[in-house]
Amino acid sequence: MGVNYLTEEQQEELRKNPYIKKVSDKSITYTTKFKELFAKEYRAGKIPSQILTEFGINHQLLGRKRKDALVAMVKKCESRSDGFEDIRKGNSGRPVTKDLSDVERISRLEHQIKYLKQENDFLKKIEFLDKQAEWKKKRKQSQKQNSNSSKKLHNVITTN
Fold first, then answer.
1. DSSP β-bridge partners for residue 23
2. Is the Cα torsion angle 69, 8, 92, 21 positive or negative in sign?
3. Per-residue burial over 104-115, b = 16 or more CB atoms within 10 Å of its CB, e = otherwise
4. Where are the alpha helices (DSSP H) in the chain?
5. CA 68 to CA 63: how far, in whole Å?
6. What DSSP designation does 56 have?
7. Within 13 A of 11's CA, how many CA atoms are on the CB side?
8. How far, in Å, are 9, 150, 154, 155 from residue 143 at the CA level?
C-alpha cells in the first residue's frame, strides 16, 4: 500500500489555508504557529478532526494516516528543545569539517583514529586466521602423504 497522493485540486484547497506553509502531492508542511495552536488545543482535550476543522482544514481530505502523523509530529515537537520550528534545513546531513571548532575537529579525528585502529586489528585477526587455516590444510595434506608412503613401505616390506 503506497502513499495517498493529493490531487491538484486538493493541493490548491490546502494552499489557500494560512496555516499551511507548503503542499505537494505527497506531503503537507504546516506553519510553526499552527503546530503550536494544534498542540494547545490537543492538550485541552479536543480531537484532531475537530481542531483541523476549527482552523479551516478539511480533515476528511487529509485522511486518518496524515492526522495520526500530525499528532505524532506535534507531540515530538513539544518534547524537542527547538520546539515547533522546522529544523529539517538545518540538519541536512553531517556537518562540514571546516565549520567545526578545534575541539570538535580533534574529537572527530580521535574517534576516526580509534575506528581505524580497530579496523586494522580486525584485518590482522582475519589474516592470521586465514594463515592458520592454510597451515592446518597443509599439515593434513602432509600427514596424508606420510601415511600413504608408510602404507606403501609397509606393503613393500610385507610382500618381500
1. 28
2. negative
3. eeeeeeeeeeee
4. 8-15, 32-43, 48-54, 59-79, 102-159
5. 9
6. T
7. 13
8. 82, 10, 16, 18
Residue 99: which pLDDT band, with cuts at 50, 70 and 90?
Answer: confident
Average pLDDT of the segment spanning 73-77: 87
Cα–Cα dist 19/30, whole Å: 6
Beta carbons of 35 and 74 less than 8 angstroms apart: yes
Whether the Cβ atoms of residue 6 and residue 26 lie closer than 8 Å to each other: yes
Which residue in the block uniquely carries the three cell numbers 506531503?
27
pLDDT digits (tens, 9 = 90+) for 101-158: 889 889 989 999 999 999 999 999 999 999 999 999 988 888 877 776 666 656 656 6
What are the residues whose beta carbons fall under 8 Å from the beta carbon of 86, sequence distance 6 or more?
A: 21, 29, 32
Kindly write down the DSSP assignment for every residue of 110-142, as one continuous string.
HHHHHHHHHHHHHHHHHHHHHHHHHHHHHHHHH
The single-letter code of the amino acid at 149 is S
